[in-house]
Specification:
Elements lengths: L2 H11 L1 H13 L7 H4 L8 E4 L16 E4 L1 H5 L11 H13 L4 H14 L1
Antiparallel strand pairs: 1-2
Length: 119
């Protein structure tokens, strides 16, 4: 197991993460927030997604505003598995969260892209 994977596993085993992710699921009514926009009957939320990916923005990893409840299918649509970054859909969510929380979106995208290029 490589170091990053081990750190990933340790984070998601922490009590603080488990408590916060449960809080996000309760806040979102255990419904996928993407499918809720487009379906009369939303899909069940199966996971909690970091809108600003924790790999690039660890300072936001335990911020409730940075979490959204999603189905596994919609969660998969947020991540670009080829680059390790976000898809356009993931970037749209990030943009909305940046505006709402007064974060410089372009600076955040630049930071993420620089970190991806260093990999």
């Amino acid at each position: 197991m490589n170091y990053l994977r081990k750190q990933h596993d340790l984070f998601y085993d922490r009590t603080s993460w488990k408590n916060l992710s449960r809080k996000a699921l309760r806040r979102d009514g255990y419904q996928c927030q993407i499918s809720k926009r487009y379906k009369a009957v939303p899909d069940e939320a199966q996971c909690v997604h970091h809108i600003f990916p924790r790999e690039f923005f660890p300072e936001y990893e335990l911020c409730l505003w940075n979490l959204i409840s999603l189905s596994f299918t919609n969660h998969g649509k947020m991540h670009d598995r080829k680059t390790g970054g976000l898809t356009e859909e993931g970037k749209k969510l990030m943009y909305k969260a940046a505006i709402k929380n007064k974060i410089d979106y372009q600076a955040a995208i630049d930071r993420m892209n620089q970190m991806i290029q260093r990999k």
